[in-house]
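Usage

Read records sequentially. Each one opens with the input sequence:
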Amino acid sequence: MVNASDQQLWHYLRQGDESAFTAIFERYHRTLYNYGSKLTADSSLIEDAIQEVFIDIWRMHATLSADINSIKFYLYRSLRRRIHRMQEKYHSDERIDEVADEATTPISATEESIQIEQESRVLLHKRIQELITNLPKRQAEALTLYYFDDFSIHDIAQIMDVNEKSVRNFIHRALTSLRQNRNWLIGSLLILWLLMSL
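and closes with the structure output:
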């Protein structure tokens, strides 16, 4: 099941295959946790929400839609809704604590250059985190979903329960805010990197 595509796993899950369920959980747990940490700093709430999402999926496996194009999209949207429901239930004041995705594996061949590259990525990660954390919550979420999680504007609108124009506005305002932050040179570097990836 490890090498099965998302569509195959979803098909087998709908038929009640426990190994497909386990494979989906193992494939997406870490990604979901990272996304959840952008919605709340409460790690136990994130874990509880992820568990509840998967419990619901298993409980309803026979009635799940066959027309799921992206398990990741389905899980992100489910987790976001679950966290917001849990926060409302527990009257949590804390909402979004933005973090960027983990650094990718360095390409350098020597150990010394790998270590230098890793340290640079950690510093860059911290700076990006600081910049994005200072953005309004919705702007930070839209920016992260678009640039770091590779969701389309359409998908982000569905995940955030807003229209596509609002998503574009959130991203535009976030980029504008980052451009105006002249105190950190890294702000300009981040904008260049984000704009180059458009």
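Summary fields computed downstream for this record:
- The two ends are 34 Å apart (CA to CA).
- Residues 127 and 184 are 9 Å apart (CA to CA).
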